[in-house]
Amino acid sequence: xxxxxxxxxxxxxxxxxxxxxxxxxxxxxxxxxxxxxxxxxxxxxxxxxxxxxxxxxxxxxxxxxxxxxxxxxxxxxxxxxxxxxxxxxxxxxxxxxxxxxxxxxxxxxxxxxxxxxxxxxxxxxxxxxxxxxxxxxxxxxxxxxxxxxxxxxxxxxxxxxxxxxxxxxxxxxxxxxxxxxxxxxxxxxxxxxxxxxxxxxxxxxxxxxxxxxxxxxxxxxxxxxxxxxxxxxxx
Length: 235
Ligand code: TMP
Description:
Layout: E1 5-11, H1 17-30, E2 35-39, H2 45-56, H3 61-86, E3 89-93, H4 96-106, H5 111-122, E4 156-161, H6 164-172, H7 185-201, E5 206-210, H8 215-231
Parallel strand pairs: 1-3, 1-4, 2-3, 4-5
Bound molecules: thymidine-5'-phosphate (TMP).
């Protein structure tokens, strides 16, 4: 059976990733692959409810981080893991790197606490506790160099990197801003730095796209990146 593929798309608000995710989906469909298009926070009815809360209600930084990971856990259990097990291609508009960038970089929330939550939520194997009564809750990851060896992570993360000032101009004419979109440019500068830090930590899966280019040029870069990446022996 074809191996499932998990690709996430990241960037500050206004970086313009959505148009390109649809194009990548088309690329895979043309190659005969089943594609699951999804997003975070969200992707299941419960996670979409949590999305409404985190995007619109003021809250404590730890509460916000916990809700992001709660939505993610549900999304992993209900959507991502079953799709990967079927051999589908999962294209996810944001994943955990967004939590490190926004809550860690933007809000200044403790990076190590986020790493602990990441290990708890993404440790493999991932099963629904409700459908497996004797399921053990994920334990703290065994101490190993570099942390846990078996976390669910995207196979590839496409980071649309853009100067926050350009992103703000693009957003100015867009929809009514949510809690994050209405943050000032220095918040997004910190989010961008969070993404850069994350990329430096895992350069193998984290590819940067220059998002200040025209839509056509960005689209061409994304298609090239995905096509080249699929040719790698490990993919
Ligand atoms: P979207 O507008 O790209 O769908 O993303 C929703 C917002 O939620 C966006 O401003 C980024 C933010 N966010 C976080 O702060 N932390 C997270 O973990 C995720 C997934 C999104």
